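Q: Structure tokens for this one, please.
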Amino acid sequence: MFITLYVDRDCPYCQQVRWVLAEKNISYNLVELSLKKDKDFILSHSPYGALPILKERDKTFYDAKVIMYYLDERYPSPSLMPQYPVVRAKTRLALMRIERDWYTMMKLIETKSDRTEEAKEALKDSFTAIAPIFAESEFFMSDEMTLADGALAVLLHRLPSYGVILDKKNEVQKYADRMFVREAFQQSLLNKNKYKPAS
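A: Here is the predicted structure, written as tokens:
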């Protein structure tokens, strides 16, 4: 086993990478770290002091998106990025939107500031407005699963814990249910509370 992934248990970006490894059925060694207790080790491998960190033999990578792009190119089957440049660029744009629009709101909720409730409502309203798009294809704006699906599924899975509940008939929730029951997504969860769709 040549890959070691260093993670923070609660980090959504770490879960994104675990999802990619699971979808590609790549064996790896998982090491959980504490951002406080293991600060020196983390800084020695990541100048930004953030996780995840991936080591493969003598190579070290940090930043979730960089790691995911590397894994998709290094282990091309199954591919999680489209083959054609235009569609590939659209997937990167989708990833950027997920990060800038929705993950930014998720971080505001986590800070429990005076903007928390506003962020909750904005996040719910955003997914309600975009719901029709999810009815058009099996995956997020694509007929094939991509890295954008992993990033989005990780976020959607956390919504209930933030008090953001989507209507069960919402196409976004239906999409989320499809993603959550996938074996790879189940493997990306470190806790024992595996997802079970509502009956």
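A few notes: Strands lie at 3-7, 29-32, 53-56, 59-62. The first strand starts at residue 3 and ends at 7.
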